Amino acid sequence: MKTKLSLAALSLFSVISFGANAAAHQVTSEQAQNMQSMGSISVSQVGSSPMDMRHELSQKATEEGASAYRITEARDGDAWHATAELYK
Q1: H or E element in which residue 74 lies
Q2: CA-to-CA distance for 81 and 88, rounded, in angstroms?
Q3: Domain YdgH/BhsA/McbA-like: where (predicted)?
Q4: pTM above the 0.85 mark?
Q5: Band of the pLDDT at 21, cuts 50, 70, 90?
Q6: Are strands 25-26 and 68-75 parallel, antiparallel or unpaired?
Q7: In the 8-state DSSP scheme, what is residue 67?
């Protein structure tokens, strides 16, 4: 019984760790040349930091099924806005 419980727990932990590693990451123009484009996304926030914007882009890209994104436009000031191309 302990073996079955241990195997079930180990399986659950491996699924959780895989999900954490499945987030989309930012790529350069050179890296994107070898990838397939799948559209674009944009995010906007008021009073956030650049790291918050990158997190939002990564999260939105992951939700869209992308493995990577490349920022094509970014504006800052009181409100941030960024647009990114998505890649498989």
Answers
A1: strand 68-75
A2: 23
A3: 35-88
A4: no
A5: low
A6: parallel
A7: S
